[in-house]
Every structure is written in C-alpha cells, then in structure tokens.
Design brief:
The protein is an alpha+beta fold and about 190 residues long. The protein has four helices and five strands; from the N terminus they run ββββαβααα. It has a five-stranded mixed β-sheet with strand order 4-3-2-1-5.
Length: about 190
C-alpha cells in the first residue's frame, strides 16, 4: 500500500483549514486516513502550523511520500531535516547527539526568523495605524479651521448688517429732520 502525507481540507468556504495526514494514496482527498499528523492554517500571517514531528519522521522512515505542499510544510517545520539527520545516524556519519544538536540549532534559528517576521508585521501594522491617525487628525484640524472661519465670516456679516442698519437709522433720522427744518424756514419766510 502506497502511503502519502498530504493535506485534508476542512474549514468553511473561503476560509480553508487543513489537517496534515498520512493516508493511502488511493483514498479520497478528504476521505479515510491512517493518522493525523497535525494542522495547517493559512489564514493567519505567518501561517499557523502545528505538527507532530516525531510521527511525521516515522512515516517518512516507513516510506511515505509527501505531496508538494506537504513537503513544503514538512521542510518548514524541520521534519525533512530530522529525517535526513536520522539517515546520517543510521549510516554512521553522525552520532545521535550530534544530530540532535544540529536539529535544535536549526529550530532556534528558524524560530528567530519567524519571530522577526512577526515583529516586522506588527511594526508595519502599528506604523500604518499611526499614519492613519495622523491623517485623521489633519482632516479634523482642517474641518475645525473651516468651521472657525465660517463662524468668523458669519459674525463679520452680522456686524456688517448691524452697521448697515444703524447707518439706515441715521439716514432716516436725518431725512426726518430735514423736512422739519424746511418747514421752519418756510414759516420764517412767510
């Protein structure tokens, strides 16, 4: 029986979630499997991979062939490196302690890279949020300045209207006094 290490799709439409399984090559994609080795969630950034490394290595020792995507996942988690180092131990090129030390060093380096990527992503997200906040503050200031200018213009118009009304009152009072003065001159002439 040919065994494949492959992905079994779960999750909802548009939000895939995969199980990494060892299954008979003849079974359906989402059908029967021999053992569940872990999970893979591509919806997060970076992708979340939870994998039982020892069981995956055991399946590789027994001759299971990973699919292309499963091979990339196994390589990312170090399963293929551990399989390779175990082959060196079986051939006598390495001792088990040396192989374990190399694997642990690789895992530490890999976790450092993943943490750096997470830090860069969070820093980029914080920078984008700060830029959006600064842009929003600028828009709010412009809006407040425009409102203050409009309010000042309204006050100026109101003052101008009051001044015009006062000037009209002075003109009407002056016009009312002129006929009285004309009547007084007519009386003196008569």
């Amino acid at each position: 029986m040919a065994v494949k290490i492959r992905l079994q799709r779960h999750g909802k439409k548009g939000k895939p979630f995969y199980w990494v399984v060892a299954a008979d090559a003849r079974s359906k994609r989402d059908g029967r499997y021999l053992e569940k080795l872990g999970t893979y969630n591509p919806n997060t950034n970076p992708a979340t991979i939870d994998l039982n490394i020892d069981h995956a290595v055991q399946w590789l020792h027994n001759g299971a062939q990973p699919t292309d995507t499963a091979r990339a996942i196994l390589s990312y988690k170090g399963v293929l490196l551990k399989h390779h180092l175990d082959g060196g131990v079986r051939k006598g090129a390495l001792t088990q302690e040396q192989a374990d030390a190399k694997f642990v060093a690789w895992l530490e380096e890999k976790s450092g890279k993943v943490d750096a990527k997470k830090d860069n992503l969070s820093k980029a997200k914080a920078d984008a949020k700060a830029k959006a906040l600064a842009a929003e503050k600028a828009v709010n200031e412009k809006r407040a300045n425009a409102a203050a200018e409009a309010e000042a213009a309204e006050k100026a118009e109101a003052e101008a209207a009051e001044n015009a009304a006062a000037a009209e009152e002075v003109v009407t009072e002056a016009a009312a006094e002129e006929p009285a003065a004309d009547e007084a001159t007519e009386e003196t002439q008569a």
